[in-house]
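Example record

Each entry pairs one chain with its bound ligand, heme C.
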Amino acid sequence: MTRIVSVFTGALAITAFTATMIAQAPAGAPPAPSAQAAAGAKSVSDGVYTADQAKRGEAIYKEQCAACHGDNLEGSGPMPALAGPDFTKSWMGKTVADLFDKTHSSMPATAPGSLTEKQTADVLAYLLSVSKYPAGTTELADSIEPLKSISLDAKQ
Ligand code: HEC
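Structure tokens for the complex follow.
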């Protein structure tokens, strides 16, 4: 009789031990990769345009945008600023694809749709440079699809 009881107690102990191990397992598991890393996403703080590209964009900006948006991208009246805290705040959480689409389809306001895709990418590179996002070694793509993985953030 004594033996049966101790076997029973032993079984209980093992069950309790196993239950504890299972309960602890998730804590020891490696952290799940963040959604951003999983999607291969980047932000404009990661050097997503080149200095040369921004220079080409500056020439386009001076010629086609400055008259409305200002020499320093500061905007005025109904023309929004295209750099600085107000600009980055209003685009925060969106992607460069959204900005590309907006610019390509509706700017310059006097001749919407007249910029080529390459000119649009170049002028956006200039906008990012004025907002002090760092240049990198790869040009900003001149099509929507790859730009969807580059988010705008407010870090400056
Ligand atoms: C004739 C004046 C005019 C010209 C030229 C012009 N814009 Fe605009 N732009 C506006 C106005 C007005 C708005 C605000 C209304 C709107 O969003 O459509 C605007 C809005 C924008 C926005 C959206 C800003 C925001 O935060 O919502 C971007 C980006 C932009 N312009 C880029 C450009 C670029 C790049 C050029 C040059 C290729 C350009 N614009 C030329 C008048 C102009």
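The first helix runs from residue 2 to 28.
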